[in-house]
């Protein structure tokens, strides 16, 4: 059993979560499993803190200044009554004006030094908390910050009064006194701000199976994509019918790679266009906010116009279907090269710009999860760009190519009802994501995960080539769907979309402005970070209602493919596993961030994704 530093009932100084402020707390317990102390603040708030966030009270007491301890005149408790206390020694008398000026200068210097220190601390503390909450639409908790500055001011007042009294009785030469004052001021600044510690940014808890797990995923993810695509090409895409591996030279097509590069840089050009509003992201660890241009929907419109122009001039878009595997290989090669570039450039990035989840010090793990949080080339944000543009818009273009390929291969004047359903459902999903593009700035991908192989491969390969699996399957395996069945599937997709959109809109509205009268019916649990955890509305139904809506829509996308094979249902099976894993990651981070408030929230909302099931 590991030893503990602080005993129950001991009064110590505990750091308030999400800030640099320390308050007097009382230790009420210790968990030997999680190694967290349960402490109680004076206002009754109970939190679980790490040992590194707790200090003894003695470390916060200011040392006596060197000037006050070294002067014999200041240690004296009695004085001769033969002359005035402020009178200089015999033979060293100065005029009244001469003796008063240095004292006024010293007094002014000390007051200005302490005032500057007070302002510096207040300015350092407030933006890191209140500005963050203001961006999220949360009420400013100025009372705690103002109290902290008031406490600091009260601590400095005795020193100011002491200096005023002692200056009147100082017998040291003015040059020596000035030097002492400078030393004293520097020491006070150092001792006052030394409690502001920079937390370690090293990743201690490894995810995805650690180094071994991430190493295997680097090979497993591309292999899964190619296996699924080769299975769809077969007449009998059964799980036991393993497809033959094609010749290596047939997997590489220079024209396909060139078209992929053209597509990528065309989307980059649309991203750089000065259209759409510019918004601020969430504050980084250093308090800085990055700016993002919101023009994904405009990029989609421009892409649609470009594709329509190509079709008008009879460009064979079904070429994409004929060389689908080669396009996937091109995207995989590009994502691998991009990942290598991202890792190399991250080695020169400042520590404050590294990802909290990808700074373990292990090459394979950091390469996979992403070492740098927001890699940018000038104002061009690589992660934010890849998150929605090339892959998500490319997904719609691939679906359209599959629709045209189905019509050509089966000599149809109209696409099948199944293909129309799949294209329509997934088009709605993509348009919704692009229309609400700003909401992605608060997701885990942007705020926590670095940009490495995981997101690069996922955005550029997995999303466009796996999410379009249903449309790719229907080209070679047409499935007839009756109108009543199509109507039922449409209703199911509508229910899933309604839950997904309403839950996300409710969360985003509450983050922007919790005091909105339209949200007055919502109840929430306050947390130590200033954020509230909703316990009514959609977020009181399950902890992740948006995930529930996502899964219902994924099922609706697979149902038009029928039940002859399980292959079209790979997406919904994978998506359930993905969201369950992501929910576990969210659970872990929220428990660390919100402490006991999160435990109370879990008691109020016991179901994670599926009501009464999970």
From TrEMBL:
SUPFAM superfamilies: Tudor/PWWP/MBT. Residues 76-95 have a biased composition (Basic residues). Residues 53-109 are annotated as: Disordered. Its EC number is 1.3.1.70. GO terms for cellular component: endoplasmic reticulum membrane; nuclear inner membrane. It comes from the Eukaryota. It holds the Pfam family LBR_tudor. PROSITE patterns: STEROL_REDUCT_1 (PS01017), STEROL_REDUCT_2 (PS01018). Its main location: cytoplasm. The chain crosses the membrane at residues 208-230, 256-275, 296-315, 327-344, 455-475, 481-500, 521-542, 562-581. PANTHER family: DELTA(14)-STEROL REDUCTASE, DELTA(14)-STEROL REDUCTASE LBR. Belongs to the ERG4/ERG24 family. This is Delta(14)-sterol reductase LBR.
